[in-house]
Amino acid sequence: MSEDARIEEVAAKWKDVPGSLIMALHEVQEKLGYVPRETAMELAKEMHVPLARIYEVLTFYSFFKLTPPGKHKVQVCLGTACYLKGAAKLVEELKDQLKINEGETTEDGMFELELVRCVGCCGLAPVVVIGEKVYGNVEPAEIASILSEYEK
Amino acid sequence: MVNIKIDGIDLQVEEGKTILEAAKTLGIKIPTLCKHPDVKATAACGICVVKMAGSPKMLRACTTPVTAFEEGKEFITRDPELVDVRRTVLEMILSDHPNECFTCGRNQNCELQQLAAEFGIREIPFGQCPEDHSKDDISTGTIKLEPNKCIKCGRCVEICQEVQDVHALCFIGRGFGTQISPAGTDLKLGESPCVRCGQCSAHCPTGAISEFDNTPQAWNLLRDPDKHVTVQIAPAVRVALGEAFGLEPGVNLTKKIYTALRRLGFDAVFDTNFTADLTIMEEGSEFIQRLTKGTAPLPMITTCCPAWVDFMEKYACDVMDNFSTAKSPQEMMGALVKSYYCEQKNLDCKNVVNISIMPCTAKKYELQRSADMSTCGSGVDVDLVLTTRELARFIKQAGIDLLNLPDGEADSILGDYTGAGTIFGNTGGVMEAALRTAYELITGNKLENLDLEVVRGLEGVKEATIDVAGTAVRVAVASGLGNVEYVLEKIREWKAKGADPAQIPWHFIEVMACPGGCIAGGGQPYGVSDVLRRKRTEGLYTDDRECALRRSHENPMITKIYDEFLGAPLSEKSHKLLHTHYTCRPMYKR
Known about the structure:
Shape of chain B: globular
Helix content of chain B: 25-40%
Number of domains of chain A: 2
Order of helices and strands of chain A: HHHHEHHEEEH
Strand content of chain A: 5-15%
Radius of gyration of chain A: 18 Å
Oligomer: heterodimer
Shape of chain A: elongated
Structural class of chain B: alpha/beta
CATH superfamily of the largest domain in chain A: Glutaredoxin
Radius of gyration of chain B: 25 Å
CATH topology of the largest domain in chain B: Rossmann fold
Mean pLDDT of chain B: 95
Helix content of chain A: 40-55%
Strand order of the largest sheet of chain A: 2-1-3-4
Number of helices of chain A: 7
Number of strands of chain A: 4
């Protein structure tokens, strides 16, 4: 893997610093945009940390991604207002249409799905944000047409 | 010492002891669910809450140590509010737990069910969790993971990571969605470092991890009129089975088990202790050859434990040459049933079945570990493994009143054993048995004191030096896979420094994957702790002491099988039937 040298570098830097696994993972994600399984395995070997520990950290913090980021980040707000106005249904619809789970990226690399808490426009609840664009008062039936704006 | 009061009773407590431990000495049983004596307390479940007088705050007794600060303080472990809070904790756990006790492997043996009964839970006010088996994992073929039944207590993770150092299980995710899983998001246990030791299943408070139930297959084999069905029982089973019938740990039920097995319909009843004696002959002779003739590298490492063999094949290929080639007693018995026994009885081995009763979940895997386990040409030597827990169910299904059975005998010759064979079931036992024989075979003199205390006990690694006719033979005994790394590292260091024979750390090493050895195996009755380990172990040493013969080579039936069938230890025939090969199966860095 072409990243090998860089992973070794990251590992060498943090290996002897107690409690630094999370820093190493941050660096990996910064370089690659996510933490691929091969890299996690490489890191386990280089840093002498069990792979189990690495995955415990990776899956505990929502910051870390295990799949490559999509071209468009689809964020659904699950804050109180959005939740009460039916955001959970939007999540279901998005998962159905994109055929991915939270935190994953579609096979074609176009979309990734992220669940977030309040994005600060509760008056528009429920809210979906794609890239910089905010969609308010979204109904599940509108999801298909919203996504189609990005499919080229 | 700190002076405190618990529920109005004055008490002196050693500083650092927890409220839970202190209360226990007063006969106060604070309910616990995540706490287990084998693992450190994590305060995961919240049911052990107590109060300090004058403070409204609730403390978790399992993780609250008594320090100088607590001098003169009073703790309250029971009042209506505490009971109410504990009940709410239970109700919340149950709201995320499927209501399928009837069909669960832990029915009547479940710590959660037990507490629900004690707290008189009649309804679950927070709604009901659906039965969902979509994430069940049966990929190991030995233990079943049912994440839906997990209460996230963390015992299995702690055991797998800290005690066993296997790191097959970890927590994935966070909060409500947390799951116990191998290290990945879509990884099965069978693709992980799991060595199937089953310690997770022995420590799980619920049915989230349990052994495969193979009793239906056993019934089917017994029902088949074309099959001649034989059975073998392992050393450790006899001193633990009684617990499933209400007896104290350590009570030896060997002779009642023989009778029960006959009544179940087995055509012949054998004892794995016989092949434990045979293992000593093969493995002991192999050791002597390595020691005196240098036929293969030292140190030699025992291979009776299938979880350890699996571990080595995955993570310690570099010491493969140090592994004894002797099969485990279970597999030796299987091979002899399919060869010697069939020859004697004039039976076609294709119609002969051997079922083994083992304290171990990994034994289920051992059946298929290598092509060497197929003496008859078709099928495997041991056809089916039932753990001790399954045997208890099997006997109960058959309506056999185990405790009131008359004593029975095993079939000769594959059922005759010495005291050396029976102690194979506890840590240090294989080493002790081997030394009793090796000493005599090397020196020609009898070992005077047969009780080799130096290799006994529950310490993770025991080291000793035995004088064998002027040669200092250094031995190590490790139990609990977490203790193996120390042994392996020493060997690796020694090899790296040129493997000078004079500097060898040990000549002979015994390893058992489960802490305490097979008596505390992953398939034994629930409730394991060091107290229980000691009682079961004592049960085996008592059996040993009560045997007229306590050295494997003195077993007249061992002599007979060599005379009549095998020739001599390490003969060509012995090699073909009783020895095996290992394969490197590298696994991801755990």
